[in-house]
Specification:
By secondary structure, this protein is α+β, with helices and mostly antiparallel strands. It has helices spanning about 40-50, 105-115, 125-130, 140-150, and strands at about 20, 30-35, 50, 60-70, 75-85, 95-100, 120. Helix 3 packs antiparallel against helix 4.
Length: about 160
């Protein structure tokens, strides 16, 4: 099904719903990015991130070293970036976790986010939200281009 950018077409977007996904390519790499966006993105980060400060106490557009934890067990050392609405990529509260790359660690960090209250994002959903939320740095052509890359399509379709 093609990506549709018109408001109201994508009925699966629920206002206030928090999503999470691995935002880097699959495979082995030094660093991977797990992104969380939505009304409870920072609350999810508060549940899973242990650093010098809680995620909810961090200023927007800052990055902090800490650990991703679940049930008191450290999953990985990571950097956490907080981007508060409306000045984030999606126009919503957005958290980016830079963790060690590779399938095992990255998947475990994502699963921890999901158990903490986020739901798995669909391909292109972060960009879809940026467009629907009127994030000023996204236009229709840029969103379609990002959508094509996120779905693995080439310029020919």
């Amino acid at each position: 099904m093609p990506f549709r950018l018109e408001a109201g077409v994508n009925r699966s977007i629920v206002p206030g719903e928090t999503i999470a996904a691995i935002s880097t390519a699959a495979g082995e790499a030094a660093i991977a990015l797990v992104r969380i966006s939505g009304e409870d993105a920072i609350a999810v980060a508060d549940k899973i991130f242990r650093g010098k400060q809680r995620a909810s106490d961090l200023q927007s557009h800052t990055q902090h070293l800490g650990e991703i934890i679940e049930d008191g067990v450290t999953i990985d050392q990571a950097m956490l970036a907080v981007h508060r609405a409306p000045t984030s990529y999606t126009g919503e509260d957005l958290v980016e976790i830079s963790c060690h790359g590779g399938t095992l660690v990255t998947t475990k960090v994502l699963e921890t986010c999901l158990r903490a209250g986020a739901r798995a994002a669909r391909p292109g959903e972060f960009t879809e939200r940026a467009y629907l939320n009127g994030a000023a740095h996204r236009d229709h052509r840029a969103c379609r281009s990002v959508d094509g890359f996120s779905r693995g399509r080439n310029f020919a379709g």
